[in-house]
Amino acid sequence: MNTILEDFLELKEILNSFNGLEKEYNWLLTDLDWSYPDNYLDYFMDYRIYDDSSHCRNNYLITGENLNKLANMKEVYFIWGVFSAIEKNEIVDLDTIKDEPYADGNPNFWVENPVIQHPLAVAELVLWDSSLVLLLSKGNDLSSNFRNTFKGWKGLKSYNQS
Asked: How confident is the model at residue 56 (pLDDT cuts 50, 70, 90)?
């Protein structure tokens, strides 16, 4: 169930709409443009921060519990980002990610049937330039909770056809 909201929400508001379901997953965070506290790396299970021009993005892996804690810090604000929900029993090796999920400049959200970018992900939350929120999901739970919480959402397929 793919959803778009033409409004921008803080991550903590979105996670609150999931009613705790975010804790059932580990989350791969990519293509982030955000403000964060000094100790932000303490929240992540694993991360890659690239300081060279061969990698334009940083990758972070975090538990749903820690994502919730991080999102509730007053210093945290996301402008852009892709949050890929991955079942906790799946192994994610940050060194082997070939195509990092990304939002900024990604035309694949604006096609008839957008798909989740990471092959292990069951859902993908996209924060788009402080103006849109997209939620792509293979299941109904996260999407249903999101849709029941926020007014004005649209199905992404119908949004893209208009």
From this structure: low
